[in-house]
TrEMBL record:
Membrane topology annotation: Multi-pass membrane protein
Annotated Gene3D superfamilies: MFS general substrate transporter like domains
PROSITE patterns xrefs: MFS
Transmembrane intervals: 12-35, 47-68, 75-95, 101-123, 135-154, 166-185, 212-234, 254-277, 284-303, 309-330, 342-361, 373-395
Alphabetically ordered keywords of this record: Membrane, Transmembrane, Transmembrane helix, Transport
Highest taxon listed in the record's lineage: Bacteria
PANTHER family according to UniProt: MFS TRANSPORTER (PTHR23521:SF3), TRANSPORTER MFS SUPERFAMILY (PTHR23521)
The keyword Transmembrane belongs to this UniProt entry's keyword annotation: yes
InterPro entries per record: MFS, MFS_dom, MFS_trans_sf
Organism: Sporomusa acidovorans (strain ATCC 49682 / DSM 3132 / Mol)
Name this protein carries in UniProt: Hexuronate transporter
Localization per record: Cell membrane
The UniProt record lists the keyword Transmembrane: yes
Chief location of this protein within or outside the cell: membrane
Amino acid sequence: MTEDSKKKRILWILCLCEIGAMLICYNLAAVIPILRTEWSISNDQAGALLSVFQLGYVIAAIFTGWLADKYGGRLIFALSAIETGLAGLGFILFADNYQSALWWRALAGLGQGGLYIPGIRILSSWYSRQERGRIIGIFTCANVFAYAGAYYLASALSVAYSWQTGLFWTTIWAFPAALAVFFLVHEKKTISAATPLATAEKKPSFTLASKAFWLIIVGYVGHMWELYAFWGWLGAYVTYAFTSHGYDTSVALRYGGTIAAVCTAMGGISPGLGGWVSDKYGRCLSATTLMLISGCCALLFGWLADLSLWLLIIVGLVYGFFIVADSAIFKAGLTELVPAHAMGSALGVQSVLGFGITVITPRLFGMIVDNYSWGWAFSFLAIGPFLGIICMLLLRGQPEAWRMASGKR
């Protein structure tokens, strides 16, 4: 088998396994309308269930980047997939109220924190920086398809059978994913072209004190501020919109889950396209453009529930496409700013801070809905992309920006 064939094989195995292992991530979001009634929980508490999952992710991400550097991404991915699958089954079997659900979702989040970064670490060992935006974008697309699939499967199965059934069939695939990665995937011994600055790894501008390093980190934080709160609350918002227009609760739940899945799936190709565009035209310019569109959608989307369902769906589709299109740009850009031996650790720092903010925003979103409205809650999310725009504009002025992608800013 040629090296090119090996690279492609590893990419597609990782993508399929990422989908299987990450279906659990948003299966709970799909059944929140059911649990709110069954467990008598508020939007604030529902937001806490989303946030505690992200907290588990952040705690794991503190270690998984370093562990991937030390022991390899394959082992960390496999162990993490098994842990998240076990925690998902624990939720189904033992969670029967808000308090017990918090613990099981936190444990599931711990496992999720060991999937994405080790996967990027593996892919970065095989693909050069000129290809990395597109490749990491494709890998990110797998995440989005997992989120969309979770919404669609969990909501449909929950309406037809029970919420436990919906969660089970979006959890069980973590185990074959772990086995496939462990036995079928391996990292390249020597990372080729892992950084354009391989001969200058000791230069002080590429330490944690680097302004460019922190600008791309904070830009990613702005991206994450918006993204996971949007995904986590999308199904509940669309369900609310259909209910407010007179639809029966079960019908509204089915439409809410389906439309949320389609809107989320719109981002299933955009990270790959965004990564390809950034390979061609530069990381900073591409990210700025994409975040501007996303931020404008945030300011509009939440006010549409009482106006027009069709307009809400159209804007939701556009929003779902652009909100995640810049994801791979921040990851690929960071891999070009750090030495090869520290790549996993640097990606870990980025994930800890980026996902750290997702512990806060879903909870705050629910509080705003309870105290104000859906419109103000979604407008609140626009803070993130506009912060990211500022960071990318500042990064364009840094000399390191020329070293990313094809040398364009």
